[in-house]
Design goal:
mainly beta
């Protein structure tokens, strides 16, 4: 079933028409404890971003390929969405909400908030 979902996602990504705001985001995150590798998750997301006045937004999702040290890898779903707002010419504020489906466990969720100041 996961292979079918992955094939459908890749086909959808490959055949998506070129439109403003649509993007593909591939991201790989590895985890280590000291010098010991523990796991890696690679996301292949299809997303959309845009602006409404000074408010920027994005939403993306797709398969997440996970490999753990000394274990079997698996494929699940993950996604994230976020907002950013220009507080001034040099300062922007942002926030993000993410999720990841975890097989045989509870799903995980994350949040991120921050500020970026440009010199």
């Amino acid at each position: 079933m996961k292979t079918l979902a992955l094939a459908l996602a890749v086909t959808t990504i490959a055949s998506a028409p070129a439109m403003a705001g649509v993007y593909i985001n591939a991201e790989s995150n590895a985890s280590y404890t000291g010098n010991d590798y523990t796991s890696r998750t690679t996301d292949l997301h299809l997303g959309y971003e845009g602006d409404v006045g000074s408010l920027g937004y994005y939403i993306q999702g797709g398969p997440a390929f996970t490999d753990v040290d000394a274990g079997d890898g698996n494929t699940n779903l993950s996604g994230k969405g976020g907002l950013s707002v220009a507080a001034s010419e040099k300062l922007s504020l942002y926030g993000e909400l993410s999720f990841a489906q975890v097989e045989d466990a509870e799903n995980t969720y994350g949040t991120k908030i921050g500020a970026k100041y440009k010199f």
